[in-house]
Amino acid sequence: MMKAKPARSEVEKSIDGFLHVLRQRNASSHTIKAYAGDLEVFASYIGARPWKKIDHLAIRGFLSHLYDKGLGKTSVARALAALRSLYRWLAQEGMVEQNPAALVSTPKLPQKLPRVPTIEEMNNVLDGEMPEFAAFPERDRLMLELLYSCGIRNSELVGIDTGDIRLSSEAILIRGKGKKERYVPFGNSVAAGLAQYLPVRSKILSERRKNTPALLINQRGGRLTTRSVGRIIKKIAVGKGLSPDVHPHTLRHAFGTHMLEEGADLRAIQEMLGHERLSTTQRYTQLSMKHVLDVYDRTHPRAK
After folding, report:
1. Catalytic residue among 60, 249, 283, 291
2. Which of 177, 227, 231, 267 is catalytic?
């Protein structure tokens, strides 16, 4: 005789319902898979206890259980995020009155700071000739200049129209996150890059009989995509001897770090980067501190 399957616990049934709703909402398959795994472990840990018997101490116990299993802080933080989402849904459905997962603090994750190219490395990339494989060297140099000299995001770069450039005041209108607009200044290097690129851009559009407001175009006369920018930047960076990890955001980090190293005011950097919170910009003080300590170790007579 086949054994009857044990009845699903209250918690397991709720998790089934929650995952079903996530699928209906077309949540990403990665999210659903991760939540399903984490919540299955939670259901197993909780056993037959009903929701009303589960408090914040039980959830803390569950997190400790995950640490005991050898999980790292990132995995434990993800499991807690899954629980919080589940509880929000349970509250909407009227199955619980409070969210004990909200009373448990997220494990403090180590802030990973990106390794940014040095000022010398960036000058080497921008001052020399573009690599021979660069299919559109005038555009590619301008792209690099804009990302590094203006500290803009990839999405902001491809969104620039020719009408956004104020040559007389040497500034570009940038449309950032949440459609927030800001003016970002540019210097002689970007101005020189524009002077070389714009005539070539006009020639391509004329030959292709195309008309677009986009500043950066491909050789078919269409607006460049973020994916193309990422691919081009990586290829040129590697060709110029930089790490293969370089992507457009690396140049934005380099902008923030180098400005700070050269004595720029943190609030001015915040404004140029379009950060809503100063705390986001303050990450660069940590990067800069590493530079300061390195300089100290190399140069102070009592540090040797």
Report:
1. 249
2. 177
Highest mean pLDDT: which of 89-98, 141-150, 246-255? 141-150
By CB atoms closer than 10 A (0-12, 13-18, 19+), residue 41 is: middle
Confidence bin at 290 (pLDDT 50/70/90) = low
The tens digit of pLDDT for each residue in 149-177 reads 999 999 999 999 999 999 998 999 999 88
State the pLDDT at residue 26: 81
Q: Is 45 a catalytic residue?
A: no
pLDDT in tens, 46-74: 998 999 899 999 999 999 999 888 888 88
Is 252 one of the catalytic residues?
yes
Answer yes or no: are the C-beta atoms of 189 and 145 closer than 8 Å. Answer: yes
pTM of the model: 0.58
Which member of 201, 234, 252, 253 is catalytic? 252
C-alpha–C-alpha distance, residues 84 and 105, integer Å: 11
Catalytic residue among 78, 139, 141, 153: 153
Active site residue 20: no
> Is 284 one of the catalytic residues?
yes
Q: Is 139 exposed, middle or buried (0-12, 13-18, 19+ CB in 10 A)?
A: buried
Do 291 and 116 touch, CB atoms closer than 8 A?
A: no
The amino acid present at 34, given as its one-letter code, is: A
The yes-or-no answer on residue 249 being catalytic is yes
Residue 88 a catalytic site member: no
